[in-house]
Amino acid sequence: MPRNALLLAALSALSFASPALADAPRPNVIFILCDDMGWGDLGVFYQNSRTSTQKFATPKLDAFANDGLQLRRHYAPAPVCAPSRASLILGVHQGHANIRNNQFDQTLDDNHTLGTVMKSAGYATACIGKWGLQGPGTPVNQPSHPSKRGFDYFFGYLAHLSAHNHYPEELTGVDNQGQPNGFFDNTTKITAQLGKCYSTDLITARAKKWIADQHTASPAQPFFLYLTYAAPHAQLDVPTQPYPAGDGLDGGMQWTGTPGAMINTASGTINSWIHPDYASQAGWSDVAKRHATMMRRIDDAVGDLTATLDELGIDDNTLVVFTSDNGPANEAGSGGSYTHDPRFFDSYGPLEGIKRDTLEGGIRVPALVRWPAHITAGGISQTPAQFHDWLPTFAEVAGVPQPERADGVSLVPSLTGTGTQRPSTVYVEYSIAVNTPNWPTVFPNHANEPRNEMQVLFMNGYKGIRTNVASHADNFRIYNTLADPAESTNLTGQPGVPTQQQFKDKVLQLRRTSPSSARSYIDGQPVPPVPSPASSRAARNPMSPARSATTSMAAWKPPPR
């Protein structure tokens, strides 16, 4: 990326750390992203508290949560995968991202990303799993292939539709850009070598292998791994066999690298194995058993990964984030015959709405963070935050300032319990011409609600949401989602609640028009003035040492190398 070369060099030459981290070695960072996992799908968040027999367990994720911090009001940038992933990687919310709505497989902006920032800080970088932001063409010339957005290594599905199939060797047809679906090692298509490889197993085995190889080859070099599972997204395919015994370097999932037997579970009958805890459950549909099995497989995989870190001696200083790209789906995967119904397990938890809703169930996602060296075990945060906050967070722990083009704030104060946490800008916009499901007994406040143009903004802890927007004059509904997660009581006009004008002014100040995602209700509206240039810049770049609530110029020093 020639236009960024000088700035990347400058980033590499600078160092930055909060007082709590100034003398600490830089951590390895792993960001684990699931596909369509609902807030209520996590045991420690919701499943464990259900009195119904219609529930499943996530014991290893529960242990992960108990070792770290639960972010119970963490928000995806959009209620569907492509825009969520674009905002995450670019570090900007949906008011500034170039991929919005349902723009799958489009070209990701040629600008700073999580990959470029971490690479500039001297990290080894890899993306393993689902990408979906590659742009047109073949892998060699795709304009935003992961290798062109800061990642040294890529292994996985490039195309969005490819990742709907959990057995890559079975992939047929073409993606949204007209290219054959497939699975790739960097730019080499290896689909034919992956017979009977289940996606969760394959991604886990390759991640373990990459982590071990990287640490062995360069033990002093930290790494950043963007690990993106295709599960529990439809088609609701299940594994061939039980998760292998043990975990870590010599147990659990293992990479062999042998075509036709690439991992140690590449045998047996595909799409056949149901977890024994659920196989004989009375009253459970085949679909329910499949969803619970997929979730349990992710659970085993995360336990296997943390055991690997422990055996390598790097667990204490590895920051691991676990989350999902949007709320739970109510759909079949492309070409699949199983339609997931989130009502069976209440995958949305106490929230209303599902994937493609900007109600809480569509955008509030389960999120856990584990970093034993710096995060006190057993913590729970109810502070709203959003995906674009991870870029400044990772920049801070890596010892570099965030790029100027970044909308987030560092979450280091929330993670470590030191300093003052700056408020996050939580903003969502999305459009789709269908309604929220007509489930009045499940979603009594919002059943069959038209979606169409939708917009969400958090202000002073309150959520402003408007759906089916026809004009910028349309009012927001205002909720206290901490006390009212089902969004049942509109607080408009109540004392201490932001006004309609404040919400309307703020959304105009936040966003820029996207030529490929027109918003007729708001495009072309005059933008109200912001309070002052100084406060505006501080809001845009909260990591600036002159203004950060957690740092001063005295905190600047080279991070340990």
Can you describe this structure in just a few lines?
With 561 residues, this protein is α/β, with parallel strands linked by helices.
Structure description:
The protein has 561 residues and is α/β, with parallel strands linked by helices. It folds into 2 domains: 2-416, 3-Layer(aba) Sandwich (Alkaline Phosphatase, subunit A); 427-535, no CATH class. Helix content is 22%, strand content 16%. It contains 12 helices and 19 strands. The chain has helices at residues 5-13, 59-67, 81-90, 114-120, 199-217, 276-279, 286-312, 360-363, 390-398, 412-416, 500-510, 533-540; strands at residues 28-34, 69-71, 74-75, 124-130, 153-157, 183-185, 188-189, 223-228, 255-258, 261-263, 318-324, 364-365, 367-370, 379-381, 385-386, 427-435, 450-459, 462-466, 477-479. The chain has a 10-stranded mixed β-sheet with strand order 7-6-5-4-8-1-11-13-2-14, sandwiched between helices. A 4-stranded antiparallel β-sheet has the order 16-17-18-19, covered by helices on one side. Strands 12-3-15 form a 3-stranded mixed β-sheet. The longest helix has 27 residues, at 286-312. It is globular, with a radius of gyration of 22 Å. Residues 1-16 and 535-561 have low confidence and may be disordered.
CATH homologous superfamily (4th level) name of the largest domain: Alkaline Phosphatase, subunit A
Q: Do you know the CATH architecture of the largest domain?
A: 3-Layer(aba) Sandwich
Query: Distance between the terminal alpha carbons, to the nearest Å?
Result: 26 Å
CATH class bucket of the largest domain:
Alpha Beta
Based on CA atoms alone, the radius of gyration comes out at 22 Å
| Total count of domains | 2
Measured as a percent range, the helix fraction is 10-25%
Largest sheet: 10 strands, mixed
Number of strands: 19
**Which of globular, elongated, flat, extended, rod-shaped describes the shape?**
globular
Q: Ranges with pLDDT <50 over ≥5 residues?
A: 1-16, 535-561
CATH topology of the largest domain, what is it called?
Alkaline Phosphatase, subunit A
What portion of the residues fall into strands of 2 or more residues? Answer: 15-25%
Count of discrete alpha- or pi-helical segments spanning 4 or more residues:
12
As laid out across the biggest beta sheet, the strand order is 7-6-5-4-8-1-11-13-2-14
InterPro entries: Alkaline_phosphatase_core_sf, GAG_Ulvan_Degrading_Sulfatases, Sulfatase_N
Biased composition (Low complexity): 533-549
Keywords: Signal
Signal peptide: 1-22
